Protein: Yos1-like protein
Organism: Acorus calamus
Amino acid sequence: MGVWCFLEGCLLLLNALVILNEDRFLGPRGWGFAEVSGVRTKTLMSRLIGLIYAAQYMRVPLIALNIIVIFFKLVSG
């Protein structure tokens, strides 16, 4: 396992975080942004939810990064 495989794994994990829907997945489990926005303590769960919402704002750069990775994999084989 090299650095490239690790970076691809991180990209796939980031893609998985971006496609999570608040209404279908996060809200029913109590992981909505409204539930943790007023919490003053920085728990692991609130930080994870903040990471999910931060990743969702980065959709356009993520799409460009996916296109670059797909193009590189097509060229390199």
